[in-house]
Specification:
With about 575 residues, the chain is of the alpha/beta class. It has one domain: Metal-dependent hydrolases (TIM Barrel), CATH 3.20.20.140. About 35% of the residues lie in helices and about 20% in strands. The protein contains 19 helices and 24 strands. The strands form six sheets. Strands 1, 2, 3, 4, 5, 19, 20, 21 and 22 form a nine-stranded mixed β-sheet that branches. Strands 9-10-11-14-18 form a five-stranded parallel β-sheet, with helices on both faces. The chain has a three-stranded parallel β-sheet with strand order 6-7-8. A hairpin with a 7-residue loop joins strand 12 and strand 13. The two termini are about 35 Å apart. The structure holds ligand MFN and zinc ion (2 copies).
Length: about 575
């Protein structure tokens, strides 16, 4: 089938197209630069056309989602819809059911969502869930930062064996890249402890967090993986964590990018949910914003990219492999808390969180996220996330976009006391009048995430790329986003069209087609012998200490829904 999207206003930052009135054409699932006279015409006159959205960091599939849904029936009762001819029923607000997750991203105009933390031991389960989330391409990031073998190799500065281990584990878990969560901290949690700074050691391992980070970054570049290491640093959510955040970023500044990797991405470290890592002070009583200082580091250094983890001021469910941090949060809030602890490899904690503009600390977190967006000069370095569901559900992206585009709205919230006075007293937000434009929005939600992940088939409307396209019912030439912020939110809430691989999934703001998800995983080539050597080395240990047999551990091909295999050599 051939199509022509006619007369839209196009924002495509990867091709430096900034609000040009033009046609976009696609055929057989791909963007093309011309079509025949038989092409079906889709009239999108004066509507915004962008590449489909790419979420670089969200928690959408895996064991901690299941636990979250099970122990929060009050969340599942929200957002319930009946099934229709096309759709299954939906449920949930912060932890939607799998079908609802796919439908809701699709309504927002998204096409790709990265599952940010896959425990390799439960990778099979994660892929089973990915298979039940329709509409999206979903790569998953296996966790490496507290892995016993990785920590042993890092202690010996044995980068080659780490690289071989990573290459093997990406195949075994069908994963996309290296995720690190609170390095050494989740291992410490096994002993009821945590680590705080990058120079702290995992108990009984004689290796520091910093050594693990640097070793994994070097291995990442040795393998030329399309994405860099992706890190949730130590000390998340604690007042005074700014020095740890900056030391984490600074630890890899001399790590050389792999030569092939350098052609497709800029950074050697992607820091996720940076908002949670930008707090000053000694306790919550005297906590303040470190956003300006952290942003200054990001502005000065090209080896770093980030996503924000913007607090949306909703009741949500937090879930993270950073189990000791969730325990701290439990001690603060007293809300029900649970652990999903997975021996040898990872941990997870889950706890509800009620973020409110009336609460001084939550207001501080809200303001710090916005400050990061506004203090970081280059939109290519910062991505739109809520760390779904940790700082709020992804369905609030349109509202965040309206905040970024409207200083008027931000000041209204501060002045009308919709948020606590700490926003004004303890942050620079009220002094920042920068406003994002549509090109900036397309950058932080499409072009930048694609470049950061090394995707060379999406995130742009380049001929030959997948036809992943979103159309929004907003006329950029007639709207003043600063004053008409409510219309901005409404316009981005549901796309006029969402097109994935050339298939029209959303039309006139309704889902008209359900498409199976696809998993994207990285297949490292040329390391097979090293991988076998490492596997032979660790097998006695694995057999003795892991609770599953090796035969049951790897993700077999049939577990992976419609794989998109990215070969790297
Ligand atoms: C990431 O996974 C990930 O992370 C992230 O809630 C997550 O109340 C999971 O105990 C948090 N509050 C305070 O201490 C505030 C001080 C308070 C007080 O008690 O004194 N002050 C006030 O109320 C101010 C009133 C005066 C004024 O100045 O206005 C704590 C408490 C808290 C703090 C609780 N912290 C947790 C935040 C961290 C991490 C949430 C979520 C987190 C989730 N990824 O006239 C006048 O001026 C009067 C002054 C006022 C007065 O005294 O009344 C995974 O992958
Ligand atoms: Zn995290
Ligand atoms: Zn996260």
């Amino acid at each position: 089938m051939e199509y022509i999207l006619k007369n839209g206003i196009v924002y495509d930052p990867a091709n430096e197209i900034n609000g040009e009135k033009m046609d976009v054409m696609f055929k057989d699932g791909l963007i093309v630069d011309n079509v025949s006279a038989d092409a079906e015409v889709l009239d999108v006159t004066d509507k915004i056309v962008m590449p489909a959205g790419i979420d670089p960091h969200a928690h959408v599939a895996g064991p901690k989602l299941v636990v979250g849904r099970l122990y929060r029936p009050e969340d599942s009762r929200r957002g319930v819809t009946q099934k229709t001819k096309v759709l299954r029923s939906e449920s949930g607000f912060s932890i939607p059911s799998c079908p609802a997750t796919g439908y809701r991203y699709s309504r927002l105009g998204y096409g790709t969502v990265v599952e940010a933390a896959m425990p390799p031991l439960e990778a099979k389960h994660t892929h089973e869930e990915i298979a039940t989330i329709p509409q999206l391409d979903i790569p998953a990031m296996p966790l490496f930062g507290n892995n016993w073998f990785v920590m042993e190799y890092a202690k010996d500065n044995n980068i080659e064996d780490i690289a071989a281990f990573v290459a093997a584990w990406l195949k075994i878990s069908k994963g996309y890249g290296i995720k690190i969560v609170n390095p050494c901290g989740s291992e410490a949690w096994g002993w009821g402890m945590n680590v705080h700074g990058v120079n702290d050691k995992a108990p009984y391992f004689d290796v520091t967090s910093k050594e693990v980070i640097v070793a994994l970054a070097k291995a990442n570049e040795m393998l030329n993986l399309p994405h860099s290491i992706h890190i949730h640093p130590n000390d998340l959510g604690h007042p005074g964590n700014v020095p740890t955040t900056i030391e984490t970023m600074d630890a890899v500044k001399d790590v050389k990018k792999g030569s092939k990797a350098a052609e497709i991405r800029d950074q050697v470290m992607h820091v996720c949910h940076l908002q949670f890592h930008s707090y000053t002070g000694n306790s919550w009583k005297d906590a303040g914003s470190g956003a300006e200082e952290v942003a200054k580091y990001v502005n000065k250094h090209d080896h770093i990219t980030c996503d924000v983890g913007q607090v949306t001021l909703d009741e949500t469910t937090t879930m993270t492999a950073d189990a000791p941090m969730e325990y701290d949060l439990f001690k603060l809030s007293g809300l029900k808390w649970t652990n999903k602890d997975i021996e040898c490899e990872t941990a997870a904690g889950i706890i509800p969180c009620i973020y409110s503009g009336k609460n001084p600390v939550n207001t501080l977190q809200w303001a710090i996220g916005l400050e990061l967006f506004l203090h970081i000069d280059d939109p290519w370095k910062v991505c739109l996330t809520t760390d779904h569901p940790n700082a709020g559900p992804f369905t609030r992206y349109p509202r965040i976009i309206s905040w970024l585009m409207s200083n008027y709205r931000r000041m209204e919230m501060i002045e009308n006391r919709e948020v606590h006075k700490w926003a004004e007293k303890r942050t620079t937000l009220a002094t920042l009048d920068r406003e994002y434009d549509f090109y900036d929005i397309a950058t932080i939600s499409r072009a930048a995430p694609a470049r950061i992940y090394g995707f060379t088939d999406r995130g742009a409307l380049t001929p030959g790329y997948r036809a992943d396209i979103a159309v929004y019912d907003i006329n950029p030439n007639e709207i003043d986003p600063s004053r008409q912020y409510a219309e901005i939110e409404k316009g981005f809430n549901v796309a006029d069209y969402t097109i994935k691989d050339g298939q029209i999934l959303v039309k006139d703001k309704e889902i008209v087609k359900v498409k199976e998800s696809q998993n994207i995983w990285v297949n490292v080539k040329g390391w097979e012998q090293n991988e076998q050597k490492v596997l032979d080395n660790i097998m006695p240990f694995f057999t003795q200490y892991y609770s599953v047999k090796w035969e049951n551990y790897p993700v077999h091909d049939h577990y992976v829904s419609n794989p998109i295999r990215v070969d790297v050599d």
